[in-house]
Protein 1
Amino acid sequence: MEKMIIHGGAPLRGTVTLSGSKNAALPIMMASLLTSEPLVLSNVPRLRDVKTAMDLLTQLGVAARWIDDHRVELHAAKVTSHEASYELVKTMRASFVVLGPLLARTGRARVSTPGGCAIGARPVNLHIAGIRALGSKIQFRHGYVEAHAEKLTGGRIWLDSPSVGATENILMAAVTARGRTVIENAAREPEVQDLARVLVAMGAKISGAGTHVIEIEGVERLHGAEHEVIPDRIEAGSMMAAAAITGGDVTITNAPIEHLEAVATKLREAGVTVEANGKGVRIARNNGLKPVELRTLPYPGFPTDLQAQMMAMLTQADGSSVITETIFENRFMHAQELARMGADILMKGPTAVVRGPSKLSGAPVMATDLRASMGLIIAGLAAEHTTELSRIYHLDRGYEALDAKLSSLGARIERAQEQ
Ligand code: EPZ
């Protein structure tokens, strides 16, 4: 196992280019099941989760191969299995969105339920209710969801909450269903919009992606397509917080600023310069940080996937920041680790009060999820001496070449073998 060693204190300066979005790429890869023709995707990040998705598709009979560094061809000429095993789904929950496309293509699917997660319970009831509303029979047996439908039929679905994964699963199930499907209170995330774009390129009829109501007119079949995955807005926000905490000056050449409104607003409130710059964005900080209040919300609200990184940054603000996590019930695991580095964080239910500025001092730390790990790296960049982050397999699930990118900006960071 590897760990990351961060020697704090160097301001980040220079330019960096984002990788493709993990959370867009994963469901889009599953869409390859919907057609017998090849789906060619570019700007696919080289991540552990992408490898897991390739493994899952391969097990289902899809010919999955890298064409070059960031291009993948997925060809589901025949689907030879109906099962997503517990082994795979437990390592990557996003595997559960295979249910919709697998069922749509073959009429049946057996997919392990994901179980609990480090950041919250994360049930899949909304996915199931949606797939049922399209006429599928569903049974729960031996830890698996077994779905069966000769032909799915369009339906009207109102989601209790705008779940990203449920919207994606239902969308992929509905594109070849008989008739019209309406998803109300749908997720509006850019990743859902990117999935809808690739489905339309494959011949699907979808309107309203990016709004609360998505309408799908089922078509007989989908065909192959080529698609470029959007840049990763969460990687962008992470780099922005890293640049800000170190008092740096960084330009992200391909930051999707239109997807980062809430993040840019909070950074500006905190006294950080955020300027749109051609196709990218420049982040700079010369003065002290100011405290802010923020609440995580579904898109276009502030993303839960950037809460840990903002918390780390706000340890350096002059005053009390208030962070409320409304999406996941257990996503403050990083707070205790930040406290071990000297942060002053008061927890009360879903709210954390971060009192700054605290002098951070490097320490051995570890995290239980991807974004928490990134939060600790950000704290390490501003801490005195050395921070050692263990369990970095979490980071490798979702940040491509993070150490190389941060090093190119002047950070002193390296990987080492865990003793
Ligand atoms: C996606 O997860 C992302 N993952 C998550 O990113 C992200 O944190 C989350 O959306 C919210 O933005 C991928 O896209 C692969 P949800 P997802 O369904 O789809 C509840 C990361 O670090 N809910 O929108 O699983 C659920 O418990 C990851 O990259 C139900 O109650 O999130 C949560 O409280 C972590 N029933 C809320 O909705 C359901 O059936 C939002 O979850 C489904 C969800």
Protein 2
Amino acid sequence: MRIDIVTIFPEYFGVLDVSLLGRAREDGILDVQVHDLRAFTHDRHRTVDDKPYGGGAGMVMKPEPWGEALDAILDLDGAANASNPLDAILDLDSTVGPDAQQLTRDAPLVIFPSPAGEVFTQAMARELSTADHLVFGCGRYEGIDQRVFEYAESRASVRLVSLGDYVLNGGEVAVMAMIEAIGRLIPGVIGNPESLVEESHEDGLLEYPSYTKPAEWRGYEVPPVLMGGNHGAIATWRRDAQLERTRRVRPDLLPE
Ligand code: SAM
């Protein structure tokens, strides 16, 4: 999967070099390109924001740099699709900027993190994990000029996605969370794919509690059924524990 991220804080994404996602990048499963929005400005101060029309507090991200950044990413994509897709150049190691020459293979989905978007879920992560190319646009300040979304929609599929019902300072943390949730579902990223099956939200319930050695720790004991080797009894215990936990913590997940 190819991922392009547009941000005014590229350094936020340094963590993509570590852990499982870092290895997925090394292995070529995940190709992440981070683009500095300010590289698409043309004034001395590399301005990306201005006062809101109609007044009000805060600043709004200007449309011009966003338009150029999206063009740089989507034009390359379109060029790849217009030519023989199988011959598309997939040398994606260098940074894409206004002068970049790389091409990518598949039409992208553009995602703008926004508290006003549809809420990100495990089901959405699973759906997006099958995409070939995701483009994330990180807002800051009071957000991005509305016309950028309309322009992006004229060129690609676009989704506004919220991490939850609260307001962050910028889209970077939301994008990191989404990439981590999506990335770990891509085949090959997690060593044992079975570990993904029984997780919270995969079957609509929260996961059962987990235990490891020692069997007794500071007076707390592992439930004996988990050490008895009876797989049927273990499965029943785990299912009951899932239901009990979900009922207690997230009753909204259970059917009426
Ligand atoms: N004025 C906006 C509003 O009330 O909807 C909030 C802007 S917020 C301070 C700046 C940026 O942070 C947003 O453009 C978005 O990229 C990101 N952001 C904030 N909260 C978010 C959330 N819950 N989910 C996803 N992105 C969020």
Protein 3
Amino acid sequence: MPRKDLLDIVSLSREEVDHLLDQAGPFKELFTRSVKKVPALKGKCVLMLFYEPSTRTHSSFEVAAKRLSADVTNFTVEHSSVVKGESVRETIDTLQAMRTDFIIVRHKMAGLPGVIARHTRACVVNAGDGSHAHPTQALLDAFTLREVYPDLAGRRVLIVGDILHSRVARSTSQILKKLGVEVAYLGPGPLVPKVGPENIRRFTDYNEAMRWNPNALYLLRVQMERQEAQFFPSLREYHKVYGVTSERFRQIADQGIYIMHPGPVNRGVELCDEVMNYPRSLINQQVENGIAIRMAVLYGLKPHNGESD
Ligand code: CP
């Protein structure tokens, strides 16, 4: 039976991952045509329920839904009754009454998209919940890496930064491992969890991590908003110890290592300005691929309420 919701990467089988990545290819080809729309979701309603800020994910889902000809409604928290004290449960009941077909939800509370999914007939997509999961980011990362390495098995990706608070690190490492990629973490000791997925190497020293010979560096955004304690002395110090400085960038370019980042980028913290013009920076490709992946996700989900198309 087709899946109703996309809440995380762990629950996707390898076959489902391959299928979604394969489906995104033809959607991406559409972007080069003068007419970029297909009628696949004509008459369907997509509700964007974002309780946390987002630039890329929000706009990417909106563009994806519109390219599939769906109608999109933005539920803006600051203009909703949530600010008057309405509970999430009341909001869910209201959404249910609207009989929307898809709900795209971002919330700081891990697990909330799953709660919404259980209480609505609509297909629910997790657009990022706390430090838990960001499945469409992971899918677009895997799709982007597969464009440069059609056979991903045995490739090495070093994920750098605040692993502890990162839903991106969690979901992206899970999908890469499903695809046979070797994954390692690099970051300040307190931000690299000791427990967690097995077969992931953990480094706290940049030079030692680079001797592991990664094919790609995946730089995470430093999330000041999720840190209850100060895990490093200053952003300047972070850049010096873990960032791609100008000096490190020259070595990275010499070795032909790809650079990825989920955005938004803190220039001068995770990376120096030169990276933005680096031919092996995949950062803009990740943004473009996000639309194709989200089209594939919306196209592939089906409600379990017996309604036929
Ligand atoms: N990559 C990502 O989730 O970015 P936004 O916070 O801008 O959506």
Protein 4
Amino acid sequence: MFARILLSLTFLMATLPCSSQDVIYDEAKVPTYTLPDPLRFEDGTLVTTPADWGKRRAELLGLFEDHVYGKTPIARPEGMRFEPRTKITDFLDGKATLEEIRIHFGKGEGGPYLDLLLIKPNRIPEGGAPTFLALNFAGNHTLHPSTEITLSTSWMRSGADDIEQGLVDDDRATEKARGSRVSRWPVEKLIDAGTALASFYYGDIDPDFDDGFENGIHTIFGKPKPDEWGSIGAWAWGASRAMDYLETDEAIDQKRVAIFGHSRLGKTALWAGAQDERFALVISNNSGCGGAALSRRHFGERVARINTAFPHWFADTFVQYNENEAALPVDQHQLIALIAPRMAYVASAVEDEWADPKGEFLAAKHAGPVYEVLGKKGVGVDDQPGLNSPVGNSVRYHVRTGKHDVTDYDWEQYIRAIKVL
Ligand code: GTR
């Protein structure tokens, strides 16, 4: 019980935006900074051709591995297998098919595994349906009230609110949780737009608390070394394994798979998209510090704060930049640049100051030169656009009214983006 209270308290402290004086919410207090140039090799030479960029891309990926997210120690595990479990062909009044596929990483039945929920339109266009692959925070069963969706038995984050509403009992989901996050998942809208939605619960891969990597996939791959993946790296790896499955489904347009995540899962989507070039569109929804926001601005959440509140998210090597962002060999615009020439979508919410909306815009903008070398256009504007006024080309950006959340407005823009791929 005491441990539970302690855990809840730690979670609360970690989640509440900090109000202490050291948090900057004032543009005038942002320090002057110089961003590392995505087009300049570590030896000082400059990228001028697409071929040069290939080499610089590898160098930059290595820097993000070594200093931020950690190396991903394993690609597709030997013996990984897909187990189809559910198939409902008349979902949403016959408009869609709902499938569940269990992706087993180890040899046995007991886990670890990832349960992939896949909802596809029944009218599949030639070439397959453009597909959103989305990580979710609270279990596949929370995306839609259908009782056909397997109730997750993985560890669940039990925030006080969720316990009070009966959605989580201790640290497991309850039946009551079905459909509890529908506001973030306009399933029918996606189906009506002719797109498919694939989603998995991030806790299947690595439960989101600092336990020294004793659970999730770490039970088979072992404890990470200091320069190896933290939870963000592990979740991103899970997204690539889900993509491995999507590649086997002819109803999916392999050239139009978007990876989507919100908040910590937005950081994850960016890191997954930076590494795995099968994702044609990478969507960061309100990802903030360690995601789309520039670290050197010090605005809102900072590196020291995130490493303290969530010591398991990044590689251990990232702590050397606590209170020392200027020493980072990279900044987050370069993470977006790693997505080039594919499409990147960075979305902010104006009230989400903790995530530094302006810093998110600037990172999107400063990825632009890399897109240009590759013959593409970035955000196409110099200044952060006004509210609810999306901008961009191969790098897209909007800041919408409202709070840290995922809304229909956000999804409408993502649908538009996936359709122009
Ligand atoms: C906050 C954290 C943010 C963001 C958010 C979330 O507590 O400080 O970086 O990731 O959690 O994922 O909900």
